[in-house]
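Exercise 7. Predict the structure of Chromosome partition protein Smc from Geomicrobium sediminis.
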Amino acid sequence: MYLKRLEISGFKSFATPLKIDLDPGVTAIVGPNGSGKSNVSDGVRWVLGEQSAKQLRGSKMEDIIFAGSESRKKVNLAEVTLVLDNEDGHMSSEYVEISMTRRLFRTGESEYYLNGTACRRKDLLDLLIDSGLGKEAYSMIGQGEVEKILSSKPEERRVMFEDAAGVLKYKSRKQQSEKK
Ligand code: ATP
Ligand code: MG
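Solution. The predicted structure, encoded as C-alpha cells:
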C-alpha cells in the first residue's frame, strides 16, 4: 500500500486545485520557506482525521480554508483527497484504489467520502485504524516528535510499541464494546 495521489483544493495556501502524483518509495517535497511544504503534510493529517486546529498549526478549524491573498479571493470550501494504492490488499477493502476525501465549508459543515460515496467520519477512521494509518498512529511524524519519542515515559512508549505491533486497534475495539 502506498500514497498514490493527493488532491488539494481550497486548503490552506492552495487556492486552486492541485494534484500530486506519487510513486512508491520516498518522496521529498522541497521549496522555499513559506511555500506550502508543511501545508501538504497538514492536508494528509487532516484527511486522516485530525480534529485539533492546533495540530494543523491554526487556532480554529476554519483557518485551514484558503483565506485569500493579494491576488485571489478567499474560498468557502477546503477539500483534500488521498488516494491509496491497495493492490496488495493491505487495507480491508475490496478496492484496489481507495480514495478518502474530507471537506469543510466556511459555514462549519463537514463531509467525508470513501471512494466518492458520502460516509461518516467513523467509517473512515475504522478503515484507517485497521491499516495502522490512523492519526494517532506513527504513520505521520511531525517536526519535534522524534525528540518526544526519545524522551517519552515508559508507559507512553508502550502505547507506541502497541501501535506498531497492531495491538492498539484491538484495545480500541475492546474499549468500544465495554462502553456499549
Ligand atoms: P518552511 O520552510 O518555513 O517550513 P513551508 O514550505 O513548510 O515553510 P507552510 O508552513 O506550509 O510553508 O506554508 C505557510 C504559508 O501558508 C504561509 O504563507 C501562510 O500564509 C499560508 N497559509 C496558511 N494557511 C492559509 C490559509 N488559510 N489561507 C491562505 N494562506 C494560508
Ligand atoms: Mg514547513
